[in-house]
Amino acid sequence: MIYDGVFCENQRDIVIEALKTAKHSVVIAVAWINFNEYGSTIYELLQNGVNIRIVVNDDVKNARYAGFIKDLQNNGLQFKMIQMPKNSNYMHHKFCVIDKTMCMMGSFNWTKNANENNFEDLSISHDRALVEGYVSQFETIWSLSIDDFIRLKKPEICESCGQPKAYLCVFEQEGYYQTKADIYEVCGCGDLKWVNNEFFDVSVYINLMGIFERYSDMDEEDFLNGFTINEQERKRSLDYEISRYLSKVRSDRMGCPIIHAVGIYGWKPIYKDDGENIIQVLWKERYTSNYVMDEYVIG
User: Fold this and answer.
1) Which fold has domain 5-143?
2) Which residue ranges make up each domain of the chain?
3) Which terminus of the chain is less hemmed in, N or C, by CB atoms within 10 Å?
């Protein structure tokens, strides 16, 4: 049993001990890894059927293990070296999630120097919110290219308002069999510029709404049973599930360079029977919170 805590020595042994508990999956985002020290443990896990994905920084320190990494890939390892826009930028994470239930994180790189010569910290936690946050971050790193990071962190600027422009995908059910996805270009001007649309199976919209309905039912059941609802915890869980489901848009840009956010059509009451049609944003890609709003007024 690996216990939660902060470890400031013998981190290498602790990492290997934790890795050996894996039954199903391991995701690793660590800037620098010495595969001479950790490769045999990774190989054993692969042989036991554990799904392993690793991302490291793209540089000569990691490239020197190319032969070892190739052998591990031949045995099922999924591996990526993350290139950053400038040589002075790094994929600088140091975390690992095991079986989506336990996370290791801290300053500790998986290198001999870090283990023997540096003052480093390594923390282990089974906290659900923390683990889910790291899983979400890993999927972001795994899915987005260097061009995507540049587009997200340095978006195109609107000539009229001087604010960043973004592509917003809005889902709605159309008929009995289809989900319609409308794509809008949005910026600080406040206007919605329709770009195009695509159609998917109706299950895309139904499954999305099903997430909301399930959490609504949970709230009602807790209320009827007299349980106190932890609104912050509930919102965090809901946001995680929505993000995990909608992040699939990363693989279908629908004719756009990238999709910055996803939403649904809705109605916002203002006074008695009066109100306005809006788009409620459900999901935002990384680095977009400063320039993508939570809702947009239609018309």
Assistant:
1) Endonuclease; Chain A (3.30.870)
2) 5-143, 155-297
3) N
Dihedral of alpha carbons 146, 56, 94, 125, sign: positive
The Cα diameter of the chain in Å comes to: 69
DSSP 161: T
Structural contact between residues 38 and 67, judged by C-beta atoms closer than 8 angstroms: no
CA nearest 174: which of 219, 196, 210, 206? 206
Cα 43 to Cα 12, 19, 182: the distances in Å are 16, 11, 45
Residue 176 exposed, middle or buried by CB count within 10 Å (0-12, 13-18, 19+): exposed
Q: What is the mean pLDDT of each run of 10 residues along the chain (299 residues)?
A: 91 96 98 96 98 96 95 97 81 96 97 93 94 90 89 92 95 95 92 93 92 82 77 78 80 89 91 88 90 91
